[in-house]
Write a structure and sequence with these properties.
18% strand; globular; Rossmann fold; single chain; seven-stranded mixed beta sheet; alpha/beta
């Protein structure tokens, strides 16, 4: 259901939040935490998570995945295995090798794929979380294997024309903010109630309501859902 105040859409199979929503990482994290629990109970999977971050550090727009992976790697979140960072990206050339490595595991955990994508101008800045596999490369007309039990995509720029040039001219600020929200959401979904990820030089504005909610979550008490008094 569309909520004009939070700029978030959530259905059974997907969640859509704008990066400028002050509660973006919390909303995404709550969705991930709930659906990861459901899928782990329903499927024969191993413990923990694999976060497969797809993209390249050679393109500003396409570095959303590797930047997210690097933030999670620096955060040292227990129970999460990271594949794809700025130093060791997973991209079109080696994606099949990464998938083969995952398939070799005796009892693999759930896989969450993270990637950048292009879309309509009014959708730029939205982060989409969906159940089901990611279809990487569709924004630049590449045919690549599907991957993931769930996937997270960030709409970093406008698609439809000269996609490679558009990705090269994407604002790094937007990509960094999206990567930070996604990484914090994954940390939260993995059980870390107060995610510690923060890019140096970028201060995040947190609303008083979210601050109270974070405090309540950390203390183990149900956060209040009451909105501001009109």
């Amino acid at each position: 259901m569309w909520n004009p105040f939070s700029r978030v859409i959530e259905e059974k199979s997907k969640c859509r939040v704008h990066v400028d929503d002050s509660q973006a990482w919390y909303r995404i994290g709550e969705y991930l935490r709930r659906h990861i629990s459901e899928m782990q109970s329903a499927c024969d999977v191993g413990p923990g998570l694999i976060v497969l971050c797809i993209g390249t550090d050679r393109s500003t727009g396409d570095c959303l995945g590797p930047l997210t992976g690097s933030l999670l790697d620096q955060g040292c979140t227990p129970g999460i295995d990271i594949m794809g960072t700025l130093n060791e990206p997973v991209h079109a050339t080696n994606l099949k090798d990464a998938i083969a490595e995952i398939e070799m595991l005796d009892r693999r955990p759930l896989v969450i794929a993270v990637d950048a994508c292009l879309g309509r101008s009014e959708n730029v800045g939205y982060i989409n979380v969906c159940r089901g596999p990611l279809k990487p490369g569709t924004g630049v007309n590449k045919v690549l294997p599907e991957v993931g039990d769930m996937h997270i995509t960030g709409i970093v720029n406008v698609g439809g024309y000269m996609e490679y040039l558009v990705l090269q001219n994407t604002r790094l600020s937007l990509v960094m903010r999206m990567a930070t929200s996604i990484a914090k959401a994954i940390q939260y979904a993995a059980g870390l109630d107060r995610p510690s990820i923060q890019i140096e030089g970028m201060q995040e504005k947190t609303s008083p309501l979210l601050a109270r909610r974070e405090s309540a979550v950390a203390d183990g008490t149900p956060p209040s859902t009451a909105g501001p008094r009109l």
